[in-house]
Amino acid sequence: MNIIKSFVQSKPMKHSNSFFIFVFIVTILSSCIPQKEYVLLQDKSSDKKYVNPYDTLTSITDNYYLQANDYLFINVSTPDPKISEFFNQSRGVGGSNSQRNENFFYYLLDDSMNIDFPYIGKINMSSCNVRMGKDKLHEALKPFLKEYSLTFKLASNTFTALGEFRKQGVLVMQKEQITIFEAVAMAGGITPFGKQRKMKIVRQMPDGPVTYQVDLTDKNIVNSEYYYIYPNDMLYVRPMKAKQFGIGESFSIGMITTLLALFLTIQTLTK
Question: What pLDDT digit, counting tens, does each position of 128-160 carry?
Fold first, then answer.
């Protein structure tokens, strides 16, 4: 009480101006983040400067191209179980029969984009998506089989979440493609200081990685070419500048009062 009293009695105008400047700065730093920065799926068509940056998505599954070290699940089924077994040979995994069956139909794409298929040999999958890869295997099987069914799908489905996600790391997808909002939810959501209007997607393409920037607050992202996340995609959310000042989610009124107390003490000691 004595400190506050002496602060108020000495040089009232000078201290009053300094006090109000300090309060103004603290208020600015602790003010709420504008709604437009974090509310998802906003209708921005009323903004005169707004131009829809997203094209309508025409296809989904064809957009992912197979990559080296991908695992493929392949199963050939024929009316004759012995022939089916011949084309679905074990990959030489050790252990019991049950352990081998877990890896029975999985094929790894090597660095040259080849799979080593029973009896047929190496089949190259360069520049192939899942549909094209299946067509290639169909062509390879035709000389040997007349009646059969083929299952061909991607078995290694993961994406990477970095930056202002609550749960960073490599996350497993439950299907070949998920929506961008499903990916955000799997990563625990974005922290209050993540730039949701400037999320970056790094996607591996046949000619090399490509980086896209998307706005999660724009409703036009739905059904656009960036609405779906594919295996091996990397998502990155940058922090806002407010985080550089050490302002985090725990910034509260308690911190403000602590700063004010510190300000009063310094003013009293230096008067």
Answer: 989 999 999 999 999 999 899 999 988 888 999
3-state secondary structure 5-17: HHHHHCCHHHHHH
How many angstroms separate the Cα of 212 from the Cα of each of 24, 176, 201, 260? 38, 20, 5, 44
Distance CA 131, CA 148 (A): 17
Backbone phi, psi, residue 269, to 5°: -75, -25
Q: What is the pLDDT of residue 143?
A: 92
Cα(249)–Cα(101) distance, rounded to whole angstroms? 48
Q: What share of the chain is helix, strand, coil (3-state, %, to 5)?
A: 35, 25, 40
Q: What is the pLDDT of residues 220-247, one digit of tens each?
A: 888 777 888 888 999 999 988 766 555 5
Instruction: Tell me the torsion sign for CA atoms 114, 117, 122, 123.
Output: negative
**Structure tokens given for 77:** 């089924």
pTM: 0.64
The burial of 258, by beta-carbon neighbours within 10 Å (0-12 exposed, 13-18 middle, 19 or more buried), is given as: exposed
Question: Quick check: 2 and 268 in contact, CB under 8 A?
Answer: no
Q: What pLDDT is attached to residue 98?
A: 36
Both tokens of 236, joined, read: 């990155």
Query: What are the strands, taking DSSP E only, across the chain?
Result: 71-77, 106-108, 114-117, 121-124, 149-154, 158-163, 169-172, 178-179, 199-205, 208-214, 228-229, 234-237
